Amino acid sequence: MQNSKTIIVSLFSLLCIALSCKKYTVPVDSNRSTNFVDEIRASDDFSWATSKSLNPQITFEGDFATQFLVLEILDKNYNRIQKFFKPSTVSSLRLDKQISARTDSAYLFCNKANIFLPFSTDNENIVVRNSTELSRPLPQPNASESTSSRKSSCNPSNCDRIINSSSGDIIVGKREDICINSSFSGSIKFTDQGSVTICANVALTNLTVNGSKGAIIIINDGGRLSASNLNINEKTKIINHGIVELAANLNLSAEVENYGSWTNSGSLNLNSSGEIQNFANASMSFSGGGNVIGNLSNAGRLIFSGNVNLNNSGKIENFCSLEIAGNLISNGELYNSSYIDITGNCIYNSGSLINFEDKAITHNGSLTINGGKFDMGSGTGVGVFVVANNTTINSGIDIYKGFLDICDNNGIETNNASTADKAQIKECATTVLKDACVLKGIESSTDPDGDDDDDGVSNGNDDKKGDKDVAAIFNYPSTGYAYRAYEDLWPSRGDYDFNDLVLKYKVEFEANSKNEITGANFEITINAIGAGHLNGIGIQFLEKTGDSYTRYAGSIYENLQGASIDGSDPSVALITSNIFEYLGSEVYKNDGQGPDGDPVTINVEIDFTKGAKIDASSVIPDIFMFRFENRGLEVHLPGIPPTNAATSSLFNTKEDQSEIKGWYRTKDNFPWGMEIHGVDGFLHPRSRVAINAAYPEFTNWVNSDGTQNTDWYLNPVIGLVY
Question: Which region ranges are annotated with the description Disordered (predicted)?
């Protein structure tokens, strides 16, 4: 926190003071009604909010359930809505955040655990399974052959012919779609194109593919394909959602998409026309090694129990876990964004093109770099190589982007790299944490991504390194600003021009590793003061649960800058009791009927006590208005509870029906305050111009219960707004 209060006041000269200026009137279209009550019909449960609740229940399964995770909720433009931490002892948690009502989708993101999970903001439940989706996902199949369209059942409506016999020879006619619904042993022959969907146990003795374009074989998630010897040519595509078990070497010139389990009792020979995509949450294993001439992409778990040769025309892309119980000899292109484990010798020759994302890691028995180009993702990116035995670096190495961090317990035994390349080689300087894909990490006491402040969050995931009370920083709203517009005549009804007090604000929250708010930095701009009364401004904090709010009460402030603790309620931070007095000679109204001026911006900085226990996942800031000469007369947004300083006898008098309708609502469910959420600008109505006259779409927004014209505040009548 900074230790100084900052108030930015524009330098302008007022032509007159607030109470002696000439009144300015704005002509109103005589054909347009300005009577708020006549046009508006608000249902009893209408919230008046331009935001909506994002309150998913997030459940973690598998390895994720017992891991400490650093998570973020991102909007569809990848702006952070919330950063939070999942303890290793918690497998389920709930958030409750306010987001723009126009936001229909978001993402749950965790870089280290390779989670990048899209979800609808209308969904209440999110389930995170191992390798749910990658932070850099593999390309999906073509639309005509996508997971959803090809993961078909063996329903008769999906099949030209159903095979129920237990054995024999199946001949697939041209463009014929065949389904195997029961256990079968025999051969399959394609005449030209066509498909076979396997929904049972199939023991394939022979596969023949004729014709110019080949065939598609789909193993459904309830299907199993086994074969003793299978050569798959370039005319064929296999899509597996179930189980594939091959008892011999696999000679592959075709395409394979694996979403399930694939085991091979033998080696892989991936020819130049062959392509394998092993998708997230899928597994492939070979009891032998591999010879890669084509393209091999892995987003799940891929295991070789022998040596792997990556030829000069071959390409391996690894997004999760690749394990080689032998040597890797590379003459081709290797991309790694996560974890590779090589128990033998890893040899990079001159034809190699090695591309690692920052902090991608390989564990090696021994490491020999004879040559090749090394690209570590960016100028500051680091590829991590952990070596159990010997490291040899010869003069052919070319590190043209980023750094190699080689962690050999015995040090680098031989380093013949050029002086320039040596400058781009680190030793044991990086920490890579274990996660669902990274089966073995590495820790270093010299790592800039250690945990300097000992708060349980590594430096790389810590938004404020060196401060154990701050590990996450996020904004409310997540983008732009929020605008609050008030009527100040409560409990009487106002004229609904909503310019008695107009505030533009945003809050930067700071939270610790326990998801407790430890600090809040407010930027509040007073855009307009159209009130006839003298009013003050205060701040309280609420916990939101569904549609209800609970106040954080008691002595929750450790330190305040730009505000003071309210003597009537210690949970309230008072900015001022009299806005006009606060502005002094720079007073303005900005409502079209008084002096104009550049809005004043106030910065308020708050440190909370350790006992405040403000939940970062559901905190809502409430900036409210109160009467200077009557502190107990407060005005809040509808549904927001008053502070302990409010005068209870004022409720349910005059137009207020809080007891029946909920806090700060009239009998017609009209409010005294509104918030425009997450926008860059809002033009408030001029004096005595009802908001539904200034914004014609406002009426339909209210009358439709907020389902229509959700961006009404972007379309004003220019002559009626300030």
Answer: 131-159, 444-464
Q: Is residue 666 part of a domain?
A: yes
Residues linked to residue 535 through DSSP beta bridges, in sequence order: 627
Separation CA 523–CA 606 (nearest Å): 12
What mean pLDDT is predicted for residues 662-670? Answer: 94
Q: What is the mean pLDDT of the chain?
A: 86
Residue 562 DSSP label: S
Chain centroid to CA 681: 25
pLDDT in tens, 432-484: 877 778 888 886 645 545 677 888 888 778 899 889 999 999 999 998 899 99
Report the pLDDT value the prediction gives residue 141, as an integer from 0 to 100.
34
Q: Is the peptide bond before 118 cis (omega within 30 degrees of 0)?
A: no
The DSSP secondary structure of 78-136, one letter per residue, reads: --EEEEEEE-TT-SEEE--EEEETT--EEEEEETTTTEEEEEETT--EEEE-TT-B-SS
Query: What backbone torsions phi and psi does residue 721 show, to the nearest 5 degrees?
Result: -120, 165
Question: Would you call 638 helix, strand, or coil by DSSP?
Answer: coil
Does residue 80 belong to any structural domain of this protein? Answer: yes
The structural domain count of the chain equals: 3
Distance between CA atoms of 464 and 472, rounded to whole angstroms? 7
Same domain? For 416 and 493 the reply is no
Measured CA angle at 424 (ends 418, 425), to 5 deg: 90
Residue range 206-233: mean pLDDT, rounded? 83
Q: What is the mean pLDDT of residues 215-238?
A: 85
- pLDDT of 299 above 80: yes
- Asked if the structure places residue 64 within a domain, the reply is yes
Q: Which residues make Cβ contacts (< 8 Å) with residue 468, sequence separation at least 6?
A: 453, 454, 455, 512
Q: Give the DSSP H or E segment for 692.
A: helix 691-694
- Show the domain range for 92: 51-128
Q: What is the pLDDT of residue 22?
A: 32
Long-range residue pairs from 188-195, CB within 8 A, at least 24 positions apart, any chain: 188/217, 190/214, 190/215, 190/235, 190/236
Asked if pLDDT for residue 36 goes beyond 70, the answer is no
Measured over all CA atoms, what is the biggest interatomic distance in the chain, rounded to whole angstroms?
101
Average pLDDT of 362-385?
Answer: 90
Q: Mean pLDDT across the stretch 36-60?
A: 86
CA distance 168 to 205: 10
Using CB atoms within 10 Å of the CB of residue 715, give its burial: 0 to 12 exposed, 13 to 18 middle, 19+ buried. exposed
CATH of the domain at 75: 2.60.40.10
pLDDT of residue 122: 79
Q: What is the pLDDT of residue 315?
A: 96
- The C-alpha atoms of residue 19 and residue 634 are separated, in whole angstroms, by 24
Give the C-alpha separation, 24 to 294, whole Å. Answer: 76
Rounded CA separation 537/633 (Å): 12
